[in-house]
Write a structure and sequence with these properties.
- The chain is an alpha/beta fold and about 325 residues long.
- It folds into two domains: about 170 residues, Rossmann fold (3-Layer(aba) Sandwich), CATH 3.40.50.620; about 120 residues, Rossmann fold (3-Layer(aba) Sandwich).
- It is built from eight helices and 15 strands.
- Helix 3 crosses helix 4.
- The longest helix has 18 residues.
- The structure holds flavin-adenine dinucleotide (FAD).
- The site of flavin-adenine dinucleotide has 27 residues, from helix 6, helix 7, strand 14 and helix 8.
């Protein structure tokens, strides 16, 4: 354990093993660093190539620390050790990590080693009046939103995916690429195999159009009707929890919500979904939300831009016909 509470901390640092998550973290990290008038740094641990570092600079980083030798395959124990070494040297005030499995494991390990606090799955990360990180996260199964501030430093938070949009690439930005060579201790847990997901696997987080359905659909065979609408829009299929978890009509990759995937498409169409808070937690940041529900009192209508009160079995085929015209 390290007591860093009384030391001077400055700067914002971000890390994720995923480039797309790193770019999202840089977007909010940039705002915090600008407000604090401190540099924004990013860390690369799994490559010694300069290209990824240049990408991070073009998307907002002032400095990129490249850990050498690179750590491959993904090993959170070694990542923790590398980041801990870097943080004790660089002393950033704020550490932003991804809210994926690696990021959350890393946040717990790192904050424990640094003897400081951490917050997971933050849906907002701002500064309070004392320039401490003030975060918000969904609590009590989605029934509330907690606002919390940090009282120790450094301040470690994982930001929920799709919460912040990447900044546009600016190849005119300049930044420093700093090689940090260090020894990586032998991990206590060894990754024996990492296999790539099949190319056909759904990545609903990246979809621009999502047509989702819930228990309003009566039979599994009727998914084709929803799929027709998704295909017409060149979008992905989404679903509520009962469809993926109880009925198992779709794989969990399609599950949207608090305990499923958080999505942010241009258009999200919810067909026969009541709109419980746990579902809304996963899609409320979509640019445009459309709902089709036969119950005019369904809570989903409080969250939509466009609401269609009607039977999905009539409305969805009619929409497909209209779109095809
Ligand atoms: C800890 C926790 C985590 C959870 N996480 C998630 C999550 O990640 N994602 C999630 O989705 N849920 C989650 N849930 C479950 C959530 O609370 C709801 O139970 C679930 O979202 C309801 O799914 P639904 O809208 O498909 O079904 P229902 O609530 O049964 O709604 C069906 C809707 O379809 C409408 N309907 C029926 N027939 C038609 C028709 N022919 N045409 C038009 N409309 C029709 C009905 O009016 C109704 O509004 C979670 C719950 C808990 C406790």
């Amino acid at each position: 354990m390290v007591d860093m509470v009384n030391n001077e901390f400055s700067g914002v640092i971000i890390f994720s093993e995923s480039e797309s998550i790193s770019l999202e973290l840089l977007s909010q990290g940039r705002k915090l660093a600008d407000k604090l008038a401190v540099p924004l740094s990013a860390v690369l641990v799994h490559t010694t190539d300069d290209m990824p570092a240049k990408t991070l600079i073009a998307h907002g980083a002032d400095k990129v620390y490249k850990i050498t030798p690179a750590i491959e395959p993904i090993n959170t124990e070694q990542f923790t050790n590398a980041l801990f070494n870097l943080i004790t040297e660089v002393k950033p005030r704020i550490i932003l990590l991804g809210s994926n499995r690696v990021g959350k494991e890393l946040a717990s390990r790192l904050s424990s080693k640094l003897n400081t606090g951490s917050a997971m799955d933050c849906i907002s990360a701002e500064l309070d009046e004392d320039n401490n990180l003030k975060i918000q996260r969904v609590v009590y199964s989605g029934n509330g939103v907690a606002t919390q501030t940090f009282k120790t430093q450094p301040q470690v938070a994982t930001l929920a995916q799709q919460t912040y949009k990447q900044l546009p690439r600016d190849d005119g930005r300049t930044g420093e690429i700093i090689d940090k060579s260090m020894e990586h201790p032998l991990p206590k847990v060894q990754t024996v195999n990492v296999s790539e997901r099949p190319k056909s696997a759904v990545c609903i987080e990246d979809a621009e159009f999502i047509v989702s359905f819930g228990r309003g659909l009566k039979n599994k065979e009727d998914i084709q009707m929803i799929r027709d609408l998704a295909d017409t829009l060149k979008g992905e299929l989404g679903c509520s929890r009962p469809i993926a978890s109880d009925l198992k009509w779709l794989p969990t990759e399609h599950w949207v919500g608090l305990s499923g995937h958080k999505v942010k498409p241009k258009i999200y169409i919810a067909c026969g979904i009541s709109g419980q808070i746990q579902h809304l937690a996963g899609m409320r940041d979509s640019d445009i939300i459309v709902a089709i529900n036969k119950d005019s009192e369904a809570p989903i209508f409080n969250a939509v831009d466009y609401g269609i009160i009607g039977d999905i079995y009539q409305v969805v085929p009619a929409l497909v016909d209209k779109l095809k015209q």
